[in-house]
Structure to design on (206 residues):
């Protein structure tokens, strides 16, 4: 489990195919960017742009993870070198500063608009239509591993468009600053909303 509070911005240094063929996964070597790794062991989980991955190698300042082709097909930002948001798995002794996050990407969103509004920034994202029922005004959503609050929701014919306000601090300590119209982003819906929807669907059909 995670909180969606980014602990450091790391950098994917290399992307190496694990085998030949189009179905092969890759090994990512990641500079931790200041994320302390002393308490991280092989087999531990680290969220990379919101996707939970398992550490398979590590040094004092870097670590490696293996990403399957299935995961690559369902995520954005894990297939090439570049900056990534990092968060170590939550322990029961830590503050829950964001919200409960599983590190499972539920879908890819597309940035519709990203522009300055006063001292902050407005981020507008088109989510897949099948995620619409999980997005609500003042509800929680994870974008590239960052726990954020939904300020507005609009249901469109082929998508669900939602708006988020980003304060200067969030811009400065995450990779969201690099987004632009057309960027693909990893989305994770609220964990509680997932179970509420499941329970309601069973009640209606039973």
């Amino acid at each position: 489990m995670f909180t969606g509070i980014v602990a450091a911005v790391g950098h994917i240094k290399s992307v190496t195919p694990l085998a030949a063929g189009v179905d092969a996964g890759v090994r990512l070597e990641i500079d931790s960017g200041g994320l302390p790794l002393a308490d991280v062991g092989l087999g531990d989980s680290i969220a990379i742009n919101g996707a939970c991955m398992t550490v398979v190698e590590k040094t004092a300042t870097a670590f490696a993870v293996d990403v399957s082709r299935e995961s690559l097909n369902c995520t954005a930002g894990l297939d090439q070198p570049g900056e990534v948001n990092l968060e170590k798995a939550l322990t029961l002794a830590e503050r829950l500063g964001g919200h409960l996050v599983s590190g499972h990407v539920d879908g890819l969103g597309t940035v519709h608009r990203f522009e300055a509004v006063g001292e902050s920034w407005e981020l507008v994202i088109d989510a897949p239509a099948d995620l619409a029922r999980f997005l609500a005004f003042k509800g929680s959503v994870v974008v590239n591993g960052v726990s954020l609050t939904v300020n507005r929701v609009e249901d469109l014919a082929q998508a669900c468009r939602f708006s988020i306000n980003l304060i200067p601090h969030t811009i400065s300590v995450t990779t969201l600053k690099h987004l632009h119209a057309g960027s693909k982003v990893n989305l994770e819906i609220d964990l509680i909303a997932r179970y509420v929807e499941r329970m309601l669907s069973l009640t209606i059909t039973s």
